[in-house]
Amino acid sequence: MVNNIEIGERLRAIRGERSAEAISVDMGVSKSAWCMYERGERIPRDEVKKRISEYSGKSVQELFYD
Fold it and tell me: Are 52 and 14 in contact (CB under 8 A)?
């Protein structure tokens, strides 16, 4: 199972050069929530995981569990 820090690294990679504020708007979460996801302090709810998956073109399984 993937730990929270690894998930945060994956989410930072998905964001790329975009600002945390811009990606948070696209994902429908607050900027502070997105930053907590990236720092591994919090894991997104299932609905947000799905949006991240669709945005990134990777499966939820691949992003959060492998």
Answer: yes
Question: Are 52 and 44 spatial neighbours (Cβ–Cβ below 8 Å)?
Answer: yes
At residue 1, the pLDDT reads 66
Sign of CA dihedral 39, 58, 60, 23: positive
Instruction: Chunk the chain into consecutive blocks of 10 residues (it has 66) and report each block's average pLDDT, rounded to whole numbers.
Output: 91 97 97 97 96 97 94
Tokens of 60: 């939820």
Q: Which two tokens stand for residue 44?
A: 């997104």
Q: State CA 26 to chain mean position distance.
A: 11
Query: Domains in the chain, please, with CATH?
Result: 4-64 (1.10.260.40)
Written as six digits, the tokens of 28 are: 């429908």
Beta strands in 1-66, from DSSP E residues, in sequence order: none
